[in-house]
Every structure is written in C-alpha cells, then in structure tokens.
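Aggregate trends can hide what the representation actually does to any particular protein. In the encoding step, the backbone of a single protein was reduced to a row of integers, each denoting a local shape. The record that follows shows the chain in one-letter code together with its fold in token form.

***
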Amino acid sequence: MIDLHCHLLPGIDDGAPDRAVALAMARMAAVDGIRTVACTPHIYPGLYENDRAGIHAAVEAFRGELADEGIVLQLTTGADTHLAPDLVEGLRSGRIATLADSRYFLFEPPHHVAPPRLADSVFQVLAAGYVPVVTHPERLTWIEEHYPLFAQLVRGGAWMQLTAGSLTGRYGRRPRYWAERMLDEGLVHILATDAHHSEHRVPLLGEGREAAAARLGADEATHLVQTRPQCILYNRPACEAPALPAAVTHATKPDWWRRWRHRA
C-alpha cells in the first residue's frame, strides 16, 4: 500500500513532535502493510513556513534514521498545501512541494469555513498543469451545505482523497457518513492516513482499504491505496489512472443524522 498523506517528519509541523514518535509511526505503518509514505508537512503561510527545499532535506535525513533502525519503509516528498493567493506561483517556482515532484499536490481547504471562489482557485491550478488532490473533504465542517461543489471539482479534473479512518468511524459518525457517500457516488480517487501521531490519528491504511472493499469490491479498494497512488508517484497523466467507479445507490440518511440536523 502507498500512503500519500502522512505528517511523519519530526518537529516540522503539528505531526510527529519528535524522533521517537516519528519512528513509532514508521514502524506502525510498515506493520500495517504500507510500503511507501509521502511525508507531507503543512505549508500554511503565517503558521508553517515549510518549503520544498526544507522538506526534501528533512526527508533525506529521516531516511537515514529509518535505515539505522532497520525500518523498511520508502519515503517520498510532498506537502499539505493550504489555499493562498500565490499558490500557482509557488508551484511553478518549486517553492511548494508536490507529491514526489509530480504534477499532483495535496490541497487542504480550510476546515471550518468554506472559502469563496474555491472552484475558481482549483481550476486555476488545473489550467496551470497541476492536479490538486483535495484532502479529507468528508471531515470539513461545511460539507453539508456545499456537497455538490465536490462533485463539480471532480468533474473538472480535481482528485479527492479520503482519510482511511473516516471509513471506520475513527473521526465520528458525520465524517463516516460523508466518506461512505462519496465512495458510493464515485467521487473518491485515493485513501490515505493523514497520520499525525503513533497514539492518535495513527498511520493505519489497511482498515480503510477493507472498509472500501466491503462497499465497492476488492479491485476498487486496490485502486484507492495502490494503483492510483502509484500513478501519482510515476507522474502519469490523470487519464491513465483507473476510472472512478460508477455511482451506486447509497443508504438513506440514518436516524442519528436526522436527529442531529433537527437539533442544529
């Protein structure tokens, strides 16, 4: 399996705080069957001022740590990139790290507020030749009011990434509902861990693969954690990746959802 979203590098953002936790995360990922991890610290102007050069240096240093500890895990580079006015310029100049230096990059929308003109921003980077991989849409607090936007982005060429733990309930019922619905409606390209620690937000991808297989079958589950991520690592055009599955009928909203919306 390939995990393209992991905050593994120690002390570089809000992920692994130190070497010990980072190594524990790496061991956990390897035991889970993950063979390649993209180290993707935040690039968040004003908070996490990471850039491609610093991320590459940190990954190279941590490769040495893994070798010293005998942990068999391949590392590549990337960043969890937040929306900024100079996003396209940052990609073109090489300041913003893409996944494995490919045309694909992780794009994290604001968690609590729907940004204005998000579709325009996404289509600008697509027009510049990059493919944004929108991270954990199912966990955004504003997905209820803007759900059709994500289908619009996918139709326009953006990719969607779900957090594996969302499918197993690690993030609660609401993210699980939206994760399952997006899967059922054929809107999800890949699964990743978005791991931050060895004790919470852990680097476990296998459980998400199994949950996806139960809904869509083993072949599509493999595409989510292996085939499409591999296309990213090899920088293949999006048209060469396995097509998204056709939408299937999803269950009606459960009783807890209706009660929650009524209280809100």
Q: What stands out?
A: The chain has a mean pLDDT of 94. The first strand starts at residue 2 and ends at 6.
